[in-house]
């Protein structure tokens, strides 16, 4: 009886691996901007890095990334990127991750619009948000796809351009964008601009009771009601879902994703997944699952065969 029990245990383990594969999520990154965006991805502490951690996303392009169950981390878009022809160093005017390469090994230099995720967290829920706490560089929308009713599964983000109306003292201007003159390419947070603890929610302001909204955080909040505007802006800025895939869209059309000036978003994103990078296949999650099923079938056959 030892061998059948051992075989049963191994078979059960195989099904655990199969279920783990099914529970992985797919993030589809979509660029609806009129210019290229270079997404960056950083995994949280104790979480394995995704692959790739950085790539070029051209206008109209969509690229899927397979994300394991239990992953946490953040995604953002880098803009105005280039590679030095002499040194080969890769840099971006906004959202640069400091690696000097296309792929990232660190987080985004502020200001940058961030999408933050914790998958399969408390109660089996995914927790996600779009944060402007570190400033803003381009519009972003996060839309759950196919999630269950365990969470609200609402879309969230900031779908408007804040670089134009950004307060002058928060503007990040650059002459390296090809326009020939100073151009506002991102909007800093008040914390970055002034370093004052009351804007950074640090020192004596490091609690929800002492750190309150300011005129600067209200600028972001009034324009993007569902996005984080300062560190303790949890009540209206964190969303949950379960067993969902996610579409992260850069420069979503406001008319397609925002129902009213009050910032009410629809449950899905009206995006067209028109093309993919030749280096990253849209069938990657399916190929992985197929390979996993074949491997499990072979193992099962090897385990069962001696008993025939």
UniProtKB/TrEMBL annotation:
Keywords: Membrane, Signal, Transmembrane, Transmembrane helix. Residues 1-24 form the signal peptide. InterPro entries: Osmotin/thaumatin-like_sf, Thaumatin, Thaumatin_CS. The chain crosses the membrane at residues 284-304. It comes from the Eukaryota. It holds the Pfam family Thaumatin. This is Thaumatin-like protein 1. It comes from Datura stramonium (Jimsonweed). The gene is TLP1_2.
